[in-house]
Amino acid sequence: MKEIWRFIDSGACSPAYNMALDEALLTWHSEGRIPPTIRFYGWDPATLSIGYFQKVEKEIHLDKVREYGLGFVRRPTGGRAVLHDQELTYSVIVSEEHPDMPATVTEAYRVISQGILEGFTDVGLEAYFSIPRTEEELSSLKNPRSAVCFDAPSWYELVVEGRKVAGSAQTRQKGVILQHGSIILDIDEDKLFDLFKYPSERVRERMQRNFRNKAVAINALRSEPLTMEEAKQAFRKGFEKGLNITLEPYTLSKEEDEEVRQIARNRYEQDEWNFRK
User: Fold this and answer.
1) Cα separation, 251 vs 222, whole angstroms
2) At 49, is the secondary structure helix, strand, or coil?
3) In 33-175, where does DSSP find H-type helix?
4) For residue 4, is pLDDT > 70?
């Protein structure tokens, strides 16, 4: 018998609601109120999310964020800034004690990301896990030079033809693993690079050039563009196969939804959370 996990497709939500729902699922799972859960979601409006430890003042061009009409939110997970635009975002909530979950963050990443790997296979792309090999690659993981998440593949990130195709971040709280990440269908590179501060125009140009060699969107690799619905189907099947589970659709109750909205109001809509020093 395959284990049954919950599946939530919450559609496109506000940035604060998205982060609040991930946080709520983590808490509910830690309290034994819900089984392990996989969630798919989108963003309305398109949003720049920054990692828990990032410094807004130093790295982010907020005028441009506003100019493009983007949402802005700080994630509860680490990592670098991500522009959530034409992408399928996923989150996985599962106990650290789950028999299939390795103890280390890196290995748990690999197990969870197996679901995404299967999804890429389903859409006809040959993805594989990146494993930093050289001293230089390893040291660049410890000391990321760029504020942009897709700038370098780290341990077990997914790569097609040598370029990163999905980025993920993980946190562990209350005995629960929360991993969420982006599966990019299309990318507007100029818009993305407009959102960051650079020491000079030359540095920006160099970084943008590097980025092109290191990251790629799904539709740049396919002759037929993948629609959002097709992506959802493929990656849902991918998670079922990769984690050897059955996903059962679920819709939040009114009470659950209200609880999420309250977390959004109290934390993710607050400037002191999003812009804290």
Assistant:
1) 33
2) strand
3) 56-59, 62-67, 105-122, 135-142
4) yes
Q: Is 161 exposed, middle or buried (0-12, 13-18, 19+ CB in 10 A)?
A: exposed
Q: Which tokens is 247 given?
A: 């996903």
**C-alpha closest to that of 92 among 149, 148, 165, 41:** 41
- Can you tell me the distance from the alpha carbon of 37 to that of 94, in angstroms, rounded to the nearest whole number? 7
d(CA 136, CA 156): 17
Q: What are phi and psi of 109, to 5 degrees?
A: -55, -45
Q: Answer whether 0.85 is exceeded by the pTM.
A: yes
Q: Which among 149, 166, 185, 215 is annotated as catalytic?
A: 149
Predicted pLDDT of residue 152: 45
The CATH number of domain 3-113+127-223+243-274, selected from 3.30.930.10, 3.10.180.10, 3.90.1720.10, 2.60.40.3710: 3.30.930.10
Which pLDDT belongs to residue 156? 75
C-alpha 7/C-alpha 264 separation (Å) is 21
The percentage of the chain sitting over the pLDDT mark of 90, rounded to a whole number, equals 82
Catalytic annotation present for 13: no
Asked if residue 231 lies in contact with residue 219, where contact means CB atoms within 8 angstroms, the answer is no
